[in-house]
Amino acid sequence: MSPALEEKPGFENIEAADSDQGVAATNNDSKAASAAKAAADDFGFSLAEQRRITRQVDRRLVLTVGAMYCVSLMDRTNLGAANIAGMAKDLELIGNRYSVISLVFFVTYVVFQPPSTVIVRKIGPRIHLAAITLLWGACMTGMGFVKRWDQMAGLRVLLGVLEAGFFPSCVYLLSTWYTRYEVGKRNSVFYLVGCVAAAFAGILAYGIMQMGGLSGLNGWRWIFIIEGILTMLLGIAGYWLVVDFPDAKRRNWSFLGTREREWICARVDADRGDVKPLPFSLAKYLRAGMDIKVWAYAMIFFNTTTITYALAYFLPIILTENLGFSVGASQCLVAPPYAFAGIVMYATGWLGDRYRVRGPIIVFNMLLCIIGLPIVGFHSSAAVRYFGVFLVTAGANSNVPAAMSYQANNIRGQWKRAFCSATFVSFGGIGGIAGSLVFRSQDAPAYHPGLYACIATTLLNMVIVGCLSLYFYRLNKQADRGERELECDADDTYEPGFRYTY
Q: Matching PANTHER family, A to Z (predicted)?
């Protein structure tokens, strides 16, 4: 065993664990693992050189899109901080107006996602991601100057249009660069950076609030203005930092040589046989929707994001109204649960890749939620309820990269991958609509109906994963006996040795 496996792998030595994971391969995927290793050996790179190349990709790809997702998550979820900082009073958010402002974002966010993974393939991630990030940053800045609640709702609709293409494009892009049992850790790091945003967004918002009165603007307005400017600057930087798909030849590849890029493509192609896309066909693209598994993955993500968005939008409010903390304390107390979630997220991502499992990771995360939600809702002590927030936040947020890896491991074909990424994230947006509605103002301060809804989605995730795991087990056994082949791509071709991960 490599000495690298004897130490806990951080971002710097992820590659060491990846290189040695063939030792832990199960019988189901040993052929694919051997083929990937043979493809890598054909290029003559030493193990140290392979780790160096993968580390370069990690730094340039994962950290760049992670930073951009950081501001994306912060921009779409800062309503809670702005609401308790004075927005509710200034915009007269009476009745269900706050919930309306929260959910209208997700209408356009869902509708405009399916075309995004086609567009990003056609024009490239560099232009696509940088442009929409710049534009939604401008939209965010404009929110700091609205005078009425309906103007804010209108800008939230526009924000949904602009952000719709970002997350599915990132999920798709990440899945094309790594083999199936490398992607779990990368998805975790990608989303972990977003969690850092969520952890410190409340503290940042509280600091920006202190600018209240400057230029005659209230503190909540400065939250939108400053965060919008930061987003625009990152969008401009993204034009030079974002990388293209590994098989593309149209963009600047200065950070990788031609042989290095070909090595990346060869090992991914040996792992699942779909590195290059076939010519686009709308019929073949939509045919992926006939696979029930695609919708099962999407439903898992819907159940997960219902909880994550409910937390993002209402956690500051719950901390204030339910647990009795002050506005300043509520803004700052959002950070520790998300920091804890980051630790759980990376640990479960590493374990999933190391032992080549996906379903048990999702179930474990849901167990954290099912334990934490009743504590948040029903314990008499505010301190204990706050501990419950840690469990729910960790379980729900850790499930986002876990679900991403689950679907990425069990599909083949570039256009099916594109379709699955779009539907997967679209259902996440529908979960955002549900998350915006489950905690209703008339249920304050206990919000029990919202807690019941989150418990229901948690249990449903466990049922779906259990059913899929049994289904995958049966199909894999049939494939092992030579009775069938698994996962054809859009051209009706199969990859020998491909097995589902459960």
A: MAJOR FACILITATOR SUPERFAMILY (MFS) PROFILE DOMAIN-CONTAINING PROTEIN-RELATED, PERMEASE-RELATED
- Residue identified by tokens 């209703």 is 440
Output DSSP code: residue 86: I
- Positions of the chain with pLDDT lower than 70, given as ranges: 1-42, 77, 197-199, 249-254, 274, 277, 313, 321-322, 327, 331, 441, 488-495
Is residue 5, in this structure, part of any structural domain at all?
no
SS3 of 3-65: the string is HHHHCCCCCCCHHHHHHHHHHHCCCCCHHHHHHHHHHHHCCCCCHHHHHHHHHHHHHHHHHHH
Domain count, the chain: 1
Cα(163)–Cα(132) distance, rounded to whole angstroms?
7
For the entire predicted model, the pTM comes to 0.77
Q: Is 383 exposed, middle or buried (0-12, 13-18, 19+ CB in 10 A)?
A: exposed
Give the chain's mean pLDDT. 82
DSSP 219-236: HHHHHHHHHHHHHHHHHH
pLDDT tens, residue by residue, 357-415: 999 999 999 999 999 999 988 888 888 888 998 999 999 999 999 999 999 889 887 78
Question: Does 495 reside within a domain?
Answer: no
Spell out the alpha helix ranges (H) of 46-182.
Answer: 47-57, 63-76, 79-82, 88-90, 97-111, 116-123, 125-143, 149-163, 166-177
Give the CATH number for residue 475. Answer: 1.20.1250.20
Q: Which of 167, 170, 159 is nearest to 125 (CA)?
A: 170
d(CA 191, CA 195): 6
Domain containing 69 equals: 24-275+283-480
Integer CA distances (angstroms), 479 to 131, 139, 204, in order? 45, 51, 53
Structure tokens at 313: 């939008």
At residue 485, the 3 state secondary structure works out as coil
CA dist 50 → 20, 259, 424 (Å): 12, 12, 32
Domain membership of residue 3 (yes or no) is no
Other CB atoms closer than 10 Å to residue 226's CB: what's the count? 18
What six digits make up the tokens of 128? Answer: 């696509």
